[in-house]
């Protein structure tokens, strides 16, 4: 639980610090000697971008239109056409060059996102205005779920397909996402949803960069826009996570072929998930759930919350995917249903790595050594049947959630949705510890005899800052650490070799009626081409943001 702290300030109202930053991106160098594109965002942040990808070559989208189940196939190279990354700065962005200027959208670091603001005034040089926003996430809570039945036998059957097969240097886990109605309805267009998921998955891949022998990366193969949620258990906007996970497992297995036979299926929900407790109580702090070791078995599913457009479900998705790949919570005994599981007893829960609820700062963005060993064990155990990629494609490295969310808006919508005058205090001393301070004031007047005085009570909560959120002068948060810009240098992420692509083929859907709506192919002249906009303008007050920046910086 996030503690509630009360501060009383006499006579003075609390003025929130900036939770967004106005920038005017410009290309300093179209292509450097090593093929990178140099993009200047502001004096403290210049990205050295290389082309990258995460979408499968034939990316499938399932949806129900007028009562008919349809499957659309998109070309992965079109989805990834404008996708670039700066792996050292945890940045993944779509860079679209138009006659009107450069449009940049995506994540510029572990804690921040960026989006164009075309309605705002351009700079004196004519560059398009953009805003950099903070990405926030809630504290991670879940429970470990053991697969039921004879899953161990299934695992052995898969692993014995090829005896003594050499372990590849890298394994791509084919991931299919089901986005439920409360989640996908936020996006105005299917491509916006796809590009949003690409950013999330790439951010997850950064968290898996420490895996080795084999290195594990996720390949996004498709998404279903699920209107009906027949697997859903609960009422209203609340989803009972454990029975829903059981029902979703059956749902995913029934549609596995339609999903392209992925290794993992993840339910991304816009609902509030909860765990049932004793005496009919519920715990709404639960953010996700997944079967431990379910990778490439019938228990290959997990679910998690995400507020569409905010990227706050990235950490939950990384955590639950870790469960599917065999990582249990730190300081846990070996799982009896996983052959050769080394367990995680020697890795202390209090250290605060990714598979702990404790926020260990930078460690919370990384797996413990125990988790890495558990993941290695399960991935190797699954064998070639799991290692083989059914849908040859690209991998999207470099877009991250912190580039997209306005910190004030995040605090207003997610932390204090029913309060007024909510702000994010970016000048707080907590910012240097990569903690976002969400606050709101309450005004009071008290009188004693003939004398009255006014005071303000400010309530606030602290949450972990997102990647690339500003935490001081020339400093940004990188995986929970307030890092000087000049010192940013992370372990180089190996770029997967791109698979040669051919023209995409439109295929018939897996369900009736037997017809498929072909995916539109963007052209160079179309503004909508590969636009990964997350439509956060719908939840952002442009007038307020612009006014604040003009008062603060005189622009």
From TrEMBL:
<dbReference type="GO" id="GO:0006509">
    <property type="term" value="P:membrane protein ectodomain proteolysis"/>
</dbReference>
<feature type="binding site">
    <location>
        <position position="319"/>
    </location>
    <ligand>
        <name>Zn(2+)</name>
    </ligand>
</feature>
<keyword id="KW-0482">Metalloprotease</keyword>
<dbReference type="InterPro" id="IPR001590">
    <property type="entry name" value="Peptidase_M12B"/>
</dbReference>
<dbReference type="InterPro" id="IPR024079">
    <property type="entry name" value="MetalloPept_cat_dom_sf"/>
</dbReference>
<dbReference type="InterPro" id="IPR034030">
    <property type="entry name" value="ZnMc_salivary_gland_MPs"/>
</dbReference>
<feature type="active site">
    <location>
        <position position="320"/>
    </location>
</feature>
<protein>
    <recommendedName>
        <fullName>Peptidase M12B domain-containing protein</fullName>
    </recommendedName>
</protein>
<feature type="region of interest" description="Disordered">
    <location>
        <begin position="493"/>
        <end position="528"/>
    </location>
</feature>
<keyword id="KW-0732">Signal</keyword>
<dbReference type="GO" id="GO:0004222">
    <property type="term" value="F:metalloendopeptidase activity"/>
</dbReference>
<feature type="binding site">
    <location>
        <position position="323"/>
    </location>
    <ligand>
        <name>Zn(2+)</name>
    </ligand>
</feature>
<feature type="domain" description="Peptidase M12B">
    <location>
        <begin position="171"/>
        <end position="386"/>
    </location>
</feature>
<dbReference type="Pfam" id="PF13688">
    <property type="entry name" value="Reprolysin_5"/>
</dbReference>
<feature type="signal peptide">
    <location>
        <begin position="1"/>
        <end position="16"/>
    </location>
</feature>
<keyword id="KW-0479">Metal-binding</keyword>
<feature type="binding site">
    <location>
        <position position="329"/>
    </location>
    <ligand>
        <name>Zn(2+)</name>
    </ligand>
</feature>
<keyword id="KW-0645">Protease</keyword>
<keyword id="KW-0378">Hydrolase</keyword>
<dbReference type="GO" id="GO:0046872">
    <property type="term" value="F:metal ion binding"/>
</dbReference>
<keyword id="KW-0862">Zinc</keyword>
């Amino acid at each position: 639980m996030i503690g509630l702290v009360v501060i009383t300030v006499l006579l003075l109202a609390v003025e929130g610090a900036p939770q967004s930053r106005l920038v005017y991106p410009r290309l300093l160098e179209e292509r450097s000697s090593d093929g990178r594109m140099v993009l200047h965002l502001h004096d403290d942040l210049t990205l050295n971008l290389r082309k990258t990808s995460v979408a499968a070559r034939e990316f499938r989208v399932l949806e129900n239109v007028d009562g008919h189940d349809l499957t659309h196939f998109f070309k992965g190279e079109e989805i990834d056409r404008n996708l670039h990354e700066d792996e050292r700065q945890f940045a993944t962005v779509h860079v679209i060059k138009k006659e009107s200027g450069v449009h940049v959208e995506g994540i510029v670091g572990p804690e921040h996102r960026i989006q164009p603001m075309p309605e705002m005034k351009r700079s004196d040089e004519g560059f398009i205005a953009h805003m950099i926003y903070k990405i926030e996430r809630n504290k991670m809570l879940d429970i470990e779920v053991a697969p039921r039945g004879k899953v161990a036998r299934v695992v052995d059957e898969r692993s014995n397909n090829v005896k003594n097969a050499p372990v590849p240097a890298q394994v791509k886990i084919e991931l299919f996402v089901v986005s439920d109605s409360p989640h996908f309805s936020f996006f105005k267009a299917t491509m916006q949803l796809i590009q949003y998921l690409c950013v999330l998955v790439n951010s997850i891949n950064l968290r898996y960069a420490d895996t080795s022998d084999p290195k594990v990366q996720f390949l996004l193969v498709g998404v279903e826009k699920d209107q009906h949620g027949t697997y859903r258990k609960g009422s209203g906007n609340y989803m009972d996570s454990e029975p829903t996970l059981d029902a979703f497992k059956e749902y995913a297995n029934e549609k596995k072929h339609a999903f392209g036979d992925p290794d993992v299926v993840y339910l991304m929900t816009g609902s509030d998930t909860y765990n049932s407790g004793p005496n009919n109580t519920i715990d709404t702090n639960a953010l996700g759930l997944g079967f431990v070791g379910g990778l490439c078995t019938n228990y290959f599913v997990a679910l998690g919350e995400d507020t569409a457009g905010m990227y706050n479900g990235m950490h939950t998705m990384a955590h639950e995917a870790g469960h599917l790949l065999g990582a249990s919570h730190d300081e846990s005994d070996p799982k009896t249903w996983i052959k050769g599981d080394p367990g995680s007893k020697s890795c202390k829960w209090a250290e605060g790595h990714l598979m702990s609820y404790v926020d260990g700062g930078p460690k919370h963005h990384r797996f413990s050594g125990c988790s890495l060993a558990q993941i290695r064990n399960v991935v190797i155990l699954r064998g070639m049947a799991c290692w083989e990629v059914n849908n040859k494609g690209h991998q999207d490295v470099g877009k991250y959630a912190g580039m997209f969310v306005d910190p004030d808006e995040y605090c207003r919508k997610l932390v204090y949705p029913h309060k007024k005058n909510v702000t994010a205090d970016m000048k707080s001393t907590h910012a240097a510890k990569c903690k976002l301070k969400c606050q709101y004031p309450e005004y009071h007047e008290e009188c004693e005899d003939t004398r009255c005085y006014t005071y303000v009570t400010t309530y606030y909560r602290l949450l972990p800052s997102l990647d690339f959120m500003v935490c001081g002068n020339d400093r940004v948060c990188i995986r929970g650490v307030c890092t000087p810009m000049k010192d940013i240098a992370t372990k180089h992420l190996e770029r997967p070799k791109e698979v040669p692509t051919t023209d995409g083929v439109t295929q018939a859907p897996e369900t009736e009626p037997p017809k498929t709506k072909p995916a539109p192919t963007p052209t160079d002249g179309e503004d909508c081409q590969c636009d990964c906009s997350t439509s956060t303008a719908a939840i952002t007050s442009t007038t307020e943001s612009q006014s604040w920046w003009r008062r603060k910086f005189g622009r």
